[in-house]
């Protein structure tokens, strides 16, 4: 073996995460130098003098669900490892395996022993090999760009999966024309994000400004650009060696900036390009639908398709996509016709797959469908504006309408085996009295109708609740099919369509207006519908049931950000500004991953873009009402901001704000919003946090949420931040000054002081 110069610098703080829950290796440290004649084997490692980096042999590991791992044991998770050993350098002190560089990434090492003349890991030098042959990360002082003299181009290539560092499908590089590009490595290669040629130098200033706008990275990272006859490259330096920052091209093809959170012991993504996950070509694989609003599961299979293989999906490699549960039935008769019993199933509001073929003589939709059926290789068709398009083979790049970046209204008709669709339909029709719940499940960022019928049991004691919440809020009510037929006048007034059914307007016997979703054979079946309704039935505020699990602070913080983002969508991204008017914990639904959805738009007000206010009647829930509403003036979206402030207070404390402690006979400083702003001014916000968290929380995030909440509760609406500013602050992209004490809260304090004299 030739002499291998490996010099490990203490300043290498750039790395990629394998997302495991254990360090790369617990091997014995052998100092920072491997002398001539010594061997580096499994169980050994070299550690830099400051202890920050280690070199040795390791295996990638990842925890999976039992089903994905192919086990039938009672264990809920199992750990899978890379098939062989890898030689690499990792961040030694971080408890999550975080590699800086991996040698020979295309294949593992069978004989896990390294014999070289001399190997020295120094705290002051450079890792020469990794600087020339990068993996999926960009190291500080590393160049991204071409050498004009040698033709060598420094670039990064994503890894294949969480346990396989082999070349993945995406690369980031600077071309000889000076353009920064994110490119798929498929054939043909596709550029899905770029910075224009000759403009790379102009990227440095906004990048540095972006870093300085976030308190977590302010003064930490500095980008530089060089363009001369020899080289064209982009680079960066870390100004604080104690910080841990990473720039990497993710498995999914996003270029991400991550920062290590010591308190959470995990990587947090500060910025990603492209921001929309689904822009990456074929990111979910064939026969899938990508939805950028369904975090963390952006990808899902089309109806009657299943993930292949399931283990690869959990390891981050979704390139296999989905496979048919039942093969299509088609026999070729001659070159132009085929015999088939196959049927078509519509997938609505999606972008159509790429590589369509146009059928010129299909002038009607029935002709288009027939043309596809007559070709055994045809897998889908679409008919729009008198244009017939068909697809052969795998369907790639289908994206769901998210109401934001993707707004397609196209319908894709996928080809299914008749018995698949028949079994799917029979599951719905098997019982005429199948449970039909008066609710519309949120789909995407903003539901057309988000109506969850939660009724107090004494309102309709003639029916049995599907789910007993165990608290004071009642549960979801089950109705007989015939009752819903009467309520909707035999489903005569259709309001729209949802993810797997149609929505109809109806009214109960007490004149309560409802929306009823009826399964009608769309892309999800009865089992999925029941599961989703059951999940929503179990969603409740953490204080409505003594047996409810305690949400961790990190979960609460993500809920706070999620609610603010969804309010931002309502206020800024719709055709008309939508003021929800009733933001409170009961109207914030959480899915299985605790992603929040805003529900119950029955009190919402709509404001045209040419107007800033709307006059509306007194509405909403006591304890969450903004002061201007009580005075009867026209309202603005700032009433939602005020309500959000109240919700943020409850997220911190884990209990109600308890307005009842401020009755006419008793004014107490115990009223939590009063406590919160007093403690914020005293620098003692940790005492406000829910004691059930037992001290496990991020103090900086708590202070941020508390400060935002106090600004949201200002009496004067003009003193409250815009919802966009709230989102930026919660995401750590902007800072706020110390808020003043609102007059109403100050009055409570004064009354309390007077009462105590």
Automatic annotation (TrEMBL):
PROSITE patterns: BULB_LECTIN, PAN, PROTEIN_KINASE_ATP, PROTEIN_KINASE_DOM, PROTEIN_KINASE_ST. Its EC number is 2.7.11.1. ATP binds at residue 517. GO terms for cellular component: membrane. Residues 1-20 form the signal peptide. InterPro entries: Bulb-type_lectin_dom, Bulb-type_lectin_dom_sf, Kinase-like_dom_sf, Pan_app, Prot_kinase_dom, Protein_kinase_ATP_BS, S_locus_glycoprot_dom, Ser/Thr_kinase_AS. Residues 489-733 form the Protein kinase domain. This is non-specific serine/threonine protein kinase.
